Amino acid sequence: MLKHATLGRRIGVGFGSLLAILAVLGLVAVTNMVRVKTKATMLATEYVPEVAVANDVERTSLHTMYEMRGFVYSRDAKFHDEMTKALGEVKGHLDEAGKLATASPHLVKLKDQVPQAQAAVADYEKLAGESKALLDQWQAAEDSMNKAAPEFVNAATEYRTSGEESLAKDAATSGAAAYARYQKIKDINSALSTGNLIRIAAWKTSALRDVTVMQKELPKFDEIAKTVNGIKADTRQASNIKRLDTVLSTAAAYKKACQEMVDVLAKLDDVNKLRGEAADKVLAAAEEVSKAGIDITKKSTTEAAGALATSSAILIIGLLVALGLGIFLAITI
Q1: Which of 240, 201, 241, 245 is nearest to 225 (CA)?
Q2: d(Cα 329, Cα 285) in Å, to the nearest integer?
Q3: CA 306 to CA 314: how far, in whole Å?
Q4: Residue 83 — very low, low, confident or very high, per pLDDT cuts 50/70/90?
């Protein structure tokens, strides 16, 4: 075709062919580079921040759960303060996630999960407040128990001491009176022993958080009341009657406190379960978002690597073609 062409035309065709090949190579290279840049930009501004904020939510949520569990089991205010601080961080990270989802249309999963996680955090915060209120009630019940128990023991012990002194006097004058006095001392000792068993059960219930332990002992308060009322019916001294009234009133107060503790522990168990479920929802949302972000990051990096590999192959082949064509045209010209 170039056999009869002029030298200028031959040179023009040669250079034109080489320029065409270089233009195609440049176009392919630029196109692929733009694609890689787009994916890299999305990774840097959307998907990587998505994974980061999801991990922040998960990390601070676990910290919140840890501190809350420490507060529930120790009732130490420092754990509650740390839990409140960590919960504030969770809400802050969720706000960041919401802003990121609004600014990034590609983050569909994040946009879907943020409202669900925020709702779960609100539930958790509400349940945490209920847990604190129940723990305060539990502490108040224990304070009442700790106040009533020694008063019960002191009053019963004072009555027993008075009875023992009277028993010594009656023994010298009347056997029947002495026996009646002995019987009342025996009964008050029985009431004291029953009270001690109840106190042991109360502390066991508190330590194990097992309400069934205390529930088995609650009927024994009726036994104490029956025993003490029986003693009271046969008591004449005003001071001893006053002591027995104190035994009855403190036993009733202790029973009320024990019942409150049982009720609080039962409610606390339910609230703990609900709070755990709310926390699990937050963790599940964070995990799902993080997993989605990592999957897309892997996919994008694989595609970017593929695009770069394709560009490299095309450039190498194109350069070889251009080199071969240049040699051919040089010989022909």
Answers
A1: 245
A2: 64
A3: 12
A4: very high
Nearest by Cα to 194 from 141, 156, 143: 156
CA distance 167 to 151: 24
Q: Which residue has the tokens 């522990």?
A: 265
Nearest to 285 by CA among 47, 50, 58, 45: 58
Which residues contact residue 191 at a Cβ distance below 8 angstroms, ignoring those fewer than 6 apart?
A: 156, 224, 227, 228, 247
Report how far residue 153's alpha carbon sits from residue 240's, in angstroms, rounded to the nearest whole number: 14
Residue 68 contacts residue 83 (beta carbons within 8 Å): yes
- Report yes or no: 227 and 191 within 8 Å, Cβ to Cβ: yes
Q: Sign of torsion, CA 287 288 294 297?
A: negative
3-state secondary structure of 3: coil
CA-based nearest residue to 195, from 253, 277, 118: 253
Around 265, how many Cα atoms within 13 Å sit in the side-chain half-sphere?
23
Please state the pTM of the whole predicted model.
0.77
For the segment 230-268, what is each residue's pLDDT rounded down to a tens digit?
999 988 889 889 999 999 999 999 999 999 999 999 999
